Design the sequence.
């Protein structure tokens, strides 16, 4: 009798949990739409980048690296192409290819942040012409995001080069700027004026100062959305589920109990306190069975590389298995399986769906 009451309680808990998840996802969903098909980051790596960016009290080269890493961390996983280049000197660090957060981060870390100043001039205009050659084979819209202090001291001037590229690519192309420029306070044309001149070439351009990007969350978020993607809400009508067929009677030894999912924080495998009692009840149910077999499946959302997520899902499954063992469950009765991002139960295009996909599922056979 007690065993039957426990099972009834567990099934009711499952019904309430599933109903809450459906209500969270019903009504509307968020659609993320990229602003372009191809994003190319073009980063100043010339001698002037070894000078301090006063607002952040760091060398400009290191600020540029931190900007790229922060951008990569805060972008959603977009179905677009990304490329990473430097100018002064011109070098490809990541060929234009499908966006992968891990590959992009590795490429950023390879860009030097310490180098000799003298003799390392800034051919921004000339290197934009080299970049244009690499853009020629691309299909769809192109966004070039330039991280620069505005200096250009050798070769063609950048503004006429940009105007020529706009003529060649038309509305497919747009430049954006993350500015490390600082006013010189002299009568000589300073970095800030140079950046403003480039940003004024076409009305599609968006610009943000490096200090605001790194220190003001709202400004950074606003710039990322304006340049990289838009979000829109669409109505979702939940499908009408047909009435379930009457369940056939099952012999007790063949009964399968599905426990409530255990949710995890982003990139974590630590069991959250609110799930401890659920797992204790699961352990009691398991120990009530003769010769039990428990399958513990780890899952993740789709943010990050597939290989990393596979390992994360295994760590989540292991955490739940270890907890059950601590409650007295025989370790030999537990089987863990890792699925990474391969089996989403909810919509990874929404924040709510990604939260629900960071889970461990358990069933008692």
Sequence:
């Amino acid at each position: 009798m007690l065993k039957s009451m426990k099972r009834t309680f567990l099934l009711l808990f499952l019904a309430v949990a599933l109903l809450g998840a459906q209500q969270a996802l019903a009504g509307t969903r968020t659609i993320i739409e990229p602003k372009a098909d191809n994003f190319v980051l073009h980063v100043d790596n010339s001698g002037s980048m070894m000078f301090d960016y006063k607002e952040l009290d760091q060398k400009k080269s290191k600020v540029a690296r931190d900007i790229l890493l922060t951008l990569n961390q805060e972008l959603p996983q977009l179905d677009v192409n990304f490329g990473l280049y430097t100018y002064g000197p011109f070098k490809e660090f990541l060929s234009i290819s499908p966006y992968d957060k891990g590959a992009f981060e590795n490429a950023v870390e390879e860009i030097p942040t310490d180098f000799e100043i003298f003799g390392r001039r800034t051919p921004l205009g000339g290197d934009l012409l080299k970049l244009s050659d690499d853009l020629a084979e691309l299909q769809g819209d192109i966004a070039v995001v330039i991280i620069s202090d505005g200096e250009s001291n050798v070769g063609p001037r950048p503004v006429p080069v940009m105007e020529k590229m706009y003529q060649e690519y038309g509305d497919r192309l747009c430049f954006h700027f993350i500015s490390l420029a600082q006013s010189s306070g002299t009568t000589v044309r300073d970095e800030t004026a140079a950046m403003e001149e480039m940003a004024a070439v076409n009305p599609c351009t968006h610009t943000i100062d490096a200090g605001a990007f790194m220190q003001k969350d709202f400004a950074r978020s606003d710039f990322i959305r304006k340049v990289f993607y838009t979000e829109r809400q669409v109505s979702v009508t939940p499908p009408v589920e047909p009435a379930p067929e009457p369940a056939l009677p099952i012999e007790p030894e063949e009964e399968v109990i599905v426990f409530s999912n255990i949710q995890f924080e982003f990139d974590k495998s630590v069991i959250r306190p609110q799930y401890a009692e659920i797992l204790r009840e699961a352990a009691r149910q398991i120990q009530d069975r003769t010769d039990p077999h428990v399958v513990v499946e780890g899952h993740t959302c789709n943010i990050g590389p597939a290989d990393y997520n596979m390992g994360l899902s295994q760590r989540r499954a292991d955490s739940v298995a270890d907890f059950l063992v601590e409650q007295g469950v025989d370790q030999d009765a537990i089987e863990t399986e890792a699925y990474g991002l391969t089996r989403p139960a909810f919509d990874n295009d929404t924040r709510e769906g990604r939260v629900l996909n960071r889970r461990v599922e358990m069933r008692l056979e």
In short: The longest strand covers residues 27-34. Confidence is low (pLDDT under 50) at residues 1-26, 250-254. The two ends are 20 Å apart (CA to CA).
